[in-house]
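Could you please consider the sequence and fold following this short note?
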Amino acid sequence: MLRRRLGLRLRLLATVTALALIASGCFTITLPFYRVNTPVDSTAKGAPTITETFRIGPYDLAPMGQPGFDELGTRTMPRPSGHVAIKRIDWAVVDGNGTAIGLDKVHLHHIVMVDESRPDPLCPTVGTRFAGTGAERTPQVLFGNYAYVARPADVWWSTFHVHTTSPAAVSDVYVQYKIQYEQVSDPADYRHVTPYFLDVTGCWENSASEYDVPGGGGPGSTHVATATYTAAQDGVLVYAGAHIHAGGKQATLTRDATGEDYCTANASYAPGGHPSHPNLGQLQTISWCKLHVEVKAGEQYTMQSHYDNEYPVAKAMGIMLAYVWHPDS
């Protein structure tokens, strides 16, 4: 009994001491809201997952550099019907039989999916840019009960660009996207994420998201382009994926207040060289980040794209798509 009372007194003394230190400003305890109120839930809350495949095309492309070697523009995009919670999107370039077409034949420069039924949170003159990829084919992935929830009347469109990379014509080309989703019976089952299209050039209507890397920096040099964003709401960042072009090394997302590296998305290259970047080769993949970190209203977050600066890169891009759940929205 005496030992028990002594233990209680010691714990009480420790608590009082800690409170006194906090009050004096000598000691602080930080309890990020997401760790307290939004634990990771690894179990999906809705119906069984459905996988559905969609395509745009076919496109018949001439040999590289000849008239008709590329297809670009905007168009409406097919989507799952009904009220759905999107959990994953995978991308490919395929022929009519569904067989993948290699990077040595066709290059997917970019595709950006836009939900015109919601304004974009960063550039409200366009719809929400909620998914996309390029040669890297990075999937968009959401875990637990996080999801991008599409309503029955939502309309999707895209801007895209695909072209040949070989001296031979390529016919019957499709851009394919495979969506994993759940039918929504109760929206409260999901934490609906807001997509943030972070772009080092700002809003794409000003520049088409393109800028030039000057080159001439010598072997091993790096050119860095930067954009800083101020968070308007508290939230939880759960995914980040990047898009850069050949010559790019990585894209990063940092929390300025703490210096934390929230995401470093690294590019990897296929062997064999590239006409403009013989020291790197053909861009093949870019890593992506599964996260569960806080976003605080009023704080700044910096996105950077890093390119090899030995050789110039015309029309480079530096983009990071981030999914944030806002508990109060």
